[in-house]
Amino acid sequence: MGYIVKTDVSEIKVSKGEQFFKIADELQNYNKYKILAINFNNEIKELWKKIQDNGYAKPVDITSSEGVRIYRRALLFIIYIALRRINKKANLVVHHSIGPGLYFEIKGMRNNEKNIIRLKEEMKKIIDENLLFEKITISKFDAIKYFENIGENDKALLFKYRKKTTVKVYKCDKYINYFYEYMPPSTGYIDKFDIIKHDKGYVLLHPNEKNPDRIPEFKPLPKLSATFIEYKNWLDILNIKNVGELNALIAKGVKTSGELIRISEALHEKKYANIADEIIKRKNVRLICLAGPSSSGKTTSAKRIALELKVHGKEPLQISLDDYYIDYEKIPLTDEGKKDLESLRALDLDLLNQNLKDLIAGKEVELPRYNFVTGKREWTGKKVKVGKKQPIIIEGIHGLNEKLTESIPRDQKFKVYVSALIQMNLDEMNRIPTTDTRLIRRIVRDYNFRGATALRTLQLWPEVRKGEEENIFPYQEEADVMFNSYLIYELPILKLYAEPLLLEIDNTLPEYTEAKRLLRFLDYFLPLPSIHEVPRISVLREFIGNSAFEY
């Protein structure tokens, strides 16, 4: 029996039971970069899998986010094998992304140049050996015993709370490891990487979507790194390092879960208070600029900081940057011809700066209001005036960019960067990307407050991410302080909202690939139904509803 597989460049005849290698070999003739997997009917297929139907195929390579994840995953397994070969006592612990790289530590091995060189040489040897990544299905209970016996209790605990009775693990050489997503066929598919010493650990670098032909340059981000370390210390206070330990705590019942929520919120409360204290210490601060990527909790954070300032006797005035959009017809276009609402040029900077200067000078100012229905600015007669000791708060994606408020002296500004910087992993090697947390937040928020389906949110997400890369991340180190809005308990709650929305997306849609990945990810978390325990002033309420603040 034969099948027809259609692609952008050809039509391929295949026999039932043939592997996706056949399609990849055909597509490789037209593809510049090495094909790591195949997107077949909107599902990612590893090349060794067998074809069982007609369909449409696209190559997955280093120019896609899925391809980058596959490439990095393979590198982590290669590091794992290299360590087992050169130092059996060494233990790989993955932490978080930092710029284009991935920060990790190696427990049980000295952090010096000699060991880095030794590690990279062994990795290159493993790549040259072109060792197969074999996928094996075993009993969940056998997997728990295996990983307990080799001292990887984080993986054993993760499996304990999985509903499925089987686990798919990867074997390479004589080593078995677990990754919750896909792998390339062999180590030989990896051709570029670097490892550099950084802080107490290392940074793994490799090609990505922006730099498919080379290893990107690494620049330290000390403020961002310090924020990750701060959150890691919070996790130590909570005695939770990974999802398995979080699930174990949830499994103990409502009383323990409620305590987790209260401690997590208290840590946020303390941080907001510290930010307000820092603002008060700087006597001449007149403008507080708050920025962060999509669904980072900027709006709630601005209101919480305003509350803390009121404790000090301040009465901050909050101004929305949304009201300073130029008329819709004049908004600049992206390269794809769409209105670029995230461009700095979409804002009337002259009007904004004049209003800010006048307010700081003690003048009365009429503030504009932007009508998103008509795409026009409106004047409603709303006039405001601030006192000499009354700070102004503006919140938006460009808050850290000095060009936004260039008429205001830098020493009169206090900049706050907000993002959901998750430090907790599934286990020591399977990290949770911060972007996934924000995407799940946005899916829930868009459905609850903007009438948008999960499908619509996923369709918009690539453009949102592009805007973040251009307008937010380059300026994050300009912040005077960073606030991590992630709550350790939030994904077990968001799971209850997000899963039904993601399940509505079927495999006829391109977004099914991402929906399936997110559903697989959420499946690792036990649900936390204690929604009533979430305080009404919590950042999480910005997404699930019933917030004490009006949006």
Total helical elements: 15
Shape: globular
The helix-and-strand class reads: alpha/beta
- Give Rg in angstroms: 25 Å
Residue-averaged pLDDT, rounded? 94
Q: How many strands, which pairing sense, and closed or not: the largest β-sheet?
A: 5 strands, mixed
Quote the distance from N terminus to C terminus. 58 Å
Q: Which ranges are low-confidence, i.e. pLDDT below 50, for 5 or more consecutive residues? A: none
Report the β-strand fraction as a percent range. 15-25%
The level of helicity is 25-40%
- In the sheet with the most strands, the strands line up as 2-1-5-3-4
Beta strand count: 19
Explain what this protein looks like in three dimensions.
This protein has 551 residues and is an alpha/beta fold. It contains 15 helices and 19 strands. The chain has helices at 21-28, 65-86, 113-129, 140-149, 153-160, 222-238, 243-250, 254-281, 298-311, 349-360, 434-450, 454-471, 490-502, 512-522, 541-544; strands spanning 2-6, 11-15, 37-40, 43-45, 55-60, 91-98, 101-107, 134-139, 166-172, 175-177, 194-198, 201-205, 287-291, 317-320, 365-371, 376-384, 392-395, 413-419, 481-484. The strands form five sheets. A five-stranded mixed beta sheet has the order 2-1-5-3-4. A hairpin with a 4-residue loop joins β15 and β16 (376-384).
